[in-house]
Amino acid sequence: MRISSVMEIPLVELRKKKDFLMSSYRSYKNKVKKSIQSGAGADDIYQPIWFAYETMDEFLGGTLKCKNNVDTERGLEETQGANSEPTEEILEETNENQSQSMDTQRDGNQTIRRRQNPSELIHAGNIVKDALATFKSVLNRNESSTHLSDDCDLYGKLLANKLRKLSEINRLKFMHDIDGMYLRYQLEETPSLQTPSPT
What we know:
This is MADF domain-containing protein. There is one protein chain. By secondary structure, the protein is mainly alpha-helical. The chain folds into 3 domains: 2-107, no CATH class; 117-148; 153-199. The chain is 64% helix and 4% strand. The protein has a two-stranded antiparallel ribbon with strand order 1-2. A hairpin with a 4-residue loop joins strand 1 (68-71) and strand 2 (76-79). The longest helix is centred in the middle third of the chain and has 28 residues, at 119-146.
């Protein structure tokens, strides 16, 4: 009742919130326990990313053993066992007992949580990868279709490789000779461009 009056929230609503938090915590705690019991390595132990898990785990620790029953007709909470206490008193005692351990744990190294990729994120990543692969293949196909290699292209590449092996002066001479040969063959193909020889 005291917590209800301080927070100005009805006791029934506080109990619902507590029950929701406890059920979520128990669910995550069971997953952690199962991953530890399965003989998994340190990296394979389940680390929840739920915002309240770490705080609740520090607060509750190993004290989560007793279950509470709620009498919905009277709105009273009863604890199983002979020595039952009201929930508010249990929470206050637990809080006082563990406040010192929480302070020392916060000062120590925080556990690094491994965030597991949700299935939606993995699915979206696969879709993006497929789209990118399709885009690249279309680009490569377009480049190859616009510029088909023929024997002239291949010979030009071969000649370029041979030219690179020459010294700069020999390369310039060779390129000059090739240009001269090209002009001579070009002139032979077009007779109208030939200059008349003096007779």
